[in-house]
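Translate sequence into structure tokens.
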Amino acid sequence: GIDRDPEALNYARKRLDEFGDRAVLIQGNFRDLAGILIDAGISALDGALFDLGVSSHQLDTERGFAFARDEELDMRMNPLEDTPSAADIVNSYSEHDLADVIWRYGEERYSRRIARVIVERRAKTPITRTGELAELITQAIPVKHRWNQGIHPATRAFQAIRIEVNRELEAVEQGIPTAIDALSIGA
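Result follows.
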């Protein structure tokens, strides 16, 4: 099993303890699957399962994945990695790039308005909390469209920023072909 999140791995270790050395857990990113397989001495796979996206455990942690609680705006799957956080992205991307991320990964029709509001606000003071970002996003969306499909107005934009922070689609694009190439015949 491979996971970026050290907390998820600790939980998995406890759950799989009864299987002893048959359960091999590695902290890593499946985008690096080729190297992980080599390091683990695994020449072929009998199967591969990818669990994509964010887990309910991560949503419940205080890493800024959700806006139900006002938390630090982080969103990194592995908070120990030296990679940009959601706050870094929200406070540094150009208006154009921020809008593109929100559109591409969140399919948010008001991505340009949201990006404009974020850029205007951060010019005064950096955005560092989930609550303030969710409120800005909500304000950017016209009132009559805020609760379409019964989801919070900030849901799609938060998803998009999380995907960008963790480079999730790049990992899929790299990991899945590697897994397919590593499958043994009949796997």
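Note: The mean pLDDT is 90.
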